[in-house]
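Suppose you are handed only these lines of text.
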Amino acid sequence: MTEIKIAPSMLCADFRRLKEDVADLTAAGVDWLHFDCMDGHFVGNLTYGPLVLEALREGCELFFDAHLMIAEPARHIRAFADAGADGICIHRETVDGPAAVLARIRGMGCQAGLAFNPATPLDGLEAAIEECDYVLLMSVEPGYAGQEFIPAVLGRIERVRKLIDQAGLEILIQVDGGIDAETAPQVIAAGADVLVSGSFFFNHPDGYAGAVKVLRRN
Ligand code: DX5
Ligand code: ZN
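From them, the structure of the protein bound to D-xylitol-5-phosphate can be written out as follows.
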């Protein structure tokens, strides 16, 4: 089994001191930085784009994961790749043929991710799986941090795990939304590899290192 990767959601970071926050997260031993990029169209909320990743990239060795909650993501992947994203994740709901867009992401030297909202059928995954480096299963509706975990994702994780293993591929499963001390062991048991955590992580009483410790334990 792959080692669990911890990916704090930068939606919940302190925007007044982002650079310092990134240094603190690095010191706490996180694996990925998860950037929630929202366009106010595919989701109601509006956050940030490639310029923020670029500003934080210098001097930071962590894996930069751009979770694109934006319509027509193909128009923006080049900008995220140039900004220094290591992984670019597009939503299944925003593209008709994900395989081609995922292949373009890989062609830019980035890992390619495909995300599914909680209610989106997983049918499209099989046709695109060869082009995926990671699959993101949303465990809340995208758009906002602090929502309650949707337990139905557990069965979906198991299903995707089986599909990946049967295909003999090395693809990570990432879970995003409502991950805390209680839900982390559940998603790990179902087959998750990468845990995104916002509210729980950034509000942990024992700080970032304390949150990492709790989430890694399973
Ligand atoms: C929601 C985002 C998540 C979210 C996670 O659209 O994709 O990354 O910020 O935050 P919590 O852990 O609070 O659900
Ligand atoms: Zn996210």
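What can we learn from it? The CA atoms of residues 114 and 135 lie 5 Å apart. The mean pLDDT is 97.
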